[in-house]
Specification:
The structure is a homodimer of 489-residue chains.
Chain A (H helix, E strand, L loop, with lengths): L3 E5 L3 H12 L3 E5 L5 H15 L14 E3 L3 H5 L4 E4 L5 H14 L5 E4 L6 H5 L8 E5 L9 E5 L8 H10 L3 E4 L9 H17 L5 H16 L5 H7 L4 H9 L18 H15 L4 H21 L4 H13 L18 E7 L13 H18 L4 H5 L2 E12 L8 E10 L4 E10 L2 E14 L10 H14 L16
Parallel strand pairs in A: 1-2, 1-4, 2-3, 4-5, 5-6, 7-8
Antiparallel strand pairs in A: 6-7, 9-11, 10-13, 11-12, 12-13
Helix pairs in contact in A: 1-2, 9-12, 10-11, 12-13
Chain lengths: 489, 489
């Protein structure tokens, strides 16, 4: 049976909840008196539909039905889950709960998105306080998994149901053991926000400099390990206790405007060290380092593909590495066009390897695809040319996997042009580690108009360059493996 | 000419600097009286060699030469860059600079890795104070790009040279305009560290819960946008000024133990809003949202491939999505084995598309590779079987790209077994969006022993399952496109 979620308050947060439930197959009823609510939630939904389903390797359920309700009672009457995301004013929230509870099932979960209030405060004047819990999400709610779940002694028994429902929509419930103002994560955000305001106020740094100080450094660490697992590594072989003993004294320095610090008693140090053992003790420090590095490589390479943040720094460095002209960019850079042209020269990234411990088959094609891009560049199919509306699309590919290769190995691809006539570009790539032939890739590309998405003739200068290379490569003869079909010798 | 860097202090930080310089082609001279220094730096170098080169799409320069020196004078005498990473004691650092300056070139850069001291403090008793700057890195130094550069009025003119050298080794220098205790990033780390100690001290959260509160939520945001660009989006269409006006009052709440807050004067609000415009104003809020989402999808999917943090949450959700048995896991799940077997059913992730706006060619092979993995699972080549030493490796692949597909589209792959005799597994995958045929993939796999890495017979139950499917699929006939070579109709 399709479950029903009521969304009370449809701003950025409520809209994110609506998207999360809807795309996980729940029916969603929204109540928000804002006349723009429908448009705003529609925009959040568009973003969610473009991003969330592709996170999974399975299809998500069929979307539920989205209904905008005229009254709160209509929204909540048959809801199993009621998510309140109205502005952070206690009196307003309490009033909303009174209206909700006049119309909802006594078995429904009433969850508040509040970032500041404790559940006991929210329960204050309620008819059935035991229905009300805190489920504090993080923007964008449709992508980020964290939900802080806080209950009181009145309804600690709800935790299991709440966790189950949240996991069913792909979230990560973090149960906060004792209620506290701002729960856990927002206390950190608040501490950093205050410090940032001081830095701007005192003219030390701009908003941009502060963001760079975060995303070029510890932001990347925190996305995968958080604070303590990171510091466990920093403690090195001597461990967490050593780290605290070494850096604990720094806490007494005037590093922030905000100075009250708990005393580092033996008990506190013991608590931290043993909790850290429980959390990360199954890995040695060396193993943690390798996990950290592989995580960082994967994340930074994904940012690199988007030319964003730390990934843009990598792209800039690529340009300076290539100034040594290791891989040609123009036909004039090619010393001897009668020989296969080097189109790739690089190390195998950690994130190109798979459960078999070697480079994954799809990454061979990624390298061959990059080699094709480089050959296109060399014959004049530049980013400017592509922006003007022409490009080559791959129509057909034949790969022979001849030997394995592992992370860190330096590979190169040498490319022979078999045919460059008309709309066709017929390439044969050979991938090597040193003298060892790892794979070959035979590719037929067709020049297309990016407007019509149909085959079209390339610009004359590209046709000329391509046929010149093809003619120069004719003397090389047909490479072994070219023109063969799968399973045919 | 090869440049020379001297590393004074070879712990985790000094070792990271050594790796960064060395892999970027510099000669490196290390001085550290610790008898374990050589082993420790060797371990850092192993990690760096495995991770750093693959971040780039170009080869790095040939590694420089690493020398361990008996004396500081030997290490620094011909160095262009001298990186000091000794323990955080001012008197010790000042003594080290005196020794360094007795032997180094007056033109060398003397950079301190200090996280706490201001450059004016470091320059205090130096012979040539104008040589000394702060270049504060972040662990792991060989991967994270951020370096905080701080000078004094004595040597602000060095900034350009320092930035140039740091960029040449792939780093992101952030010049701190005014010297301040702990520079910028560590003030944030310190604020969060204090708050974390309180949470543990007061029994609110464990180290693990704190780390989850970070890495499942705002850590992912900060890895790509930092604090202010994230909040600019949270302000929505009303912008940064609205965000501050809405959330500014929360600063007066008792959310942390650390309460001193600058007054939100009009001047401060103006400064923040205009700095944020300068930083991010070239994007609309909607555009920023889409960049954020695409960054998050890429990073979370890279963590998913490693089954780590937020990525492990995605894998868990995949399992629950598949409990609806949308894609079979065992031969018994297949309703009709005389028909092609569904082996993929999923949405196209944002990070699978490329500059042409459609799914990148390598991702077709990734999907076909996943389909092959699923077919292997169905015939009994399970993770347990692979752990016991047998698997299939792809020997040959032929892909025909027949139509385009875009991010968010739901694709499926149906798989026909052409041959399953002996060591061979000959598959034909067809990829569809609805009724539209997008591509076909023909694959020859060979069963191998993971110990010898050579062809071997599969276990009898796998051979039996595979031949049973192949026999059932014989009635389907040879699919169009099977057995063909590139460029041959």
């Amino acid at each position: 049976m399709t479950q029903v979620a009521a969304i009370i308050g449809g701003g950025v947060i409520g809209g994110g909840w609506a998207a999360r439930f809807l795309l996980n197959g729940w029916d969603v009823r929204v109540f928000d008196p804002d006349p723009q609510a429908q448009r705003k939630i529609g925009e959040v939904l568009d973003n969610a539909r473009a991003s969330l389903p592709g996170l999974y390797d399975m299809p998500m359920p069929a979307e539920g039905t989205l209904t905008f309700c005229e009254t709160m009672s209509e929204a909540v009457s048959d809801a199993h889950w009621i998510q309140e995301s109205v502005p952070e004013r206690l009196e307003l929230k309490r009033k909303v709960y009174q209206t909700i509870q006049a119309h909802c099932s006594p078995d429904a979960i009433i969850a508040s998105s509040t970032s500041g209030f404790k559940p006991s405060e929210l329960q204050g004047c309620a008819t059935r306080p035991e229905q009300i819990v805190v489920c504090h999400p993080f923007n964008p709610v449709y992508l980020l998994p964290l939900i802080e779940v806080v209950t009181t002694e009145l309804n600690a028994d709800l935790v299991e149901i709440v966790e189950g429902d949240l996991r069913a929509i792909g979230m990560f419930p973090l149960v906060v053991k004792k209620e506290i103002d701002a729960h856990i994560a927002d206390r950190f955000l608040e501490a950093v926000w205050r410090e940032a305001l001081w830095l701007i106020n005192d003219g030390i740094a701009t908003t941009e400099e502060i963001d760079e100080a975060i995303r070029m450094g510890f932001g990347l660490r925190w996305a995968q390990m958080g604070l303590f697992e990171t510091y466990r590594i920093a403690g090195g072989e001597a461990g967490m206790r050593h780290f605290i003993e070494q850096f604990g004294p720094a806490l007494e320095w005037p590093w922030t405007k905000l100075m009250d610090v708990p005393e580092l008693t033996d008990d506190l140090i013991d608590a931290i060290a043993s909790q850290s053992d429980a959390q990360s003790g199954r890995y040695s420090i060396r193993e943690l380092e390798r996990h950290r590095d592989a995580n960082l490589v994967g994340m930074m390479r994904s940012l690199k593909a988007r030319n964003w943040g730390a990934g843009a720094v990598l792209n800039t460095h690529d340009l300076s590495l290539n100034q040594r002209a290791i891989v040609p960019e123009r036909l004039e850079d090619v010393a001897d066009i009668s020989q296969p042209i080097k189109t790739i020269d690089r190390a195998v990234p950690i994130d190109w390897t798979d459960y078999n411990g070697h480079m994954n088959e799809a990454r061979y094609l990624q390298a061959f695809g990059d080699a094709t891009d480089r050959l296109m560049l060399i014959v004049g199919c530049t980013p400017d040319y592509i922006a003007s509306g022409g490009s080559y699309f791959t129509a057909e590919t034949h790969i022979r996997h001849l030997d394995e290769v592992h992370a860190g190995a330096r590979i190169r691809v040498e490319t022979q042009v078999l045919n460059g006539e008309g709309k066709k570009m017929h390439l044969f790539h050979a991938m090597y580690e040193g003298d060892r032939l790892l794979a070959t890739g035979e590719h037929m590309l067709i020049h297309v108009s990016l407007e019509t998405r149909r085959a079209s003739d390339p610009a004359p200068q590209i046709a000329e360059a391509l046929t010149r290379v093809a003619a120069a490569h004719e003397g090389l003869g047909r490479p072994e493996g070219a023109g063969s079909a799968v399973g045919v010798r």
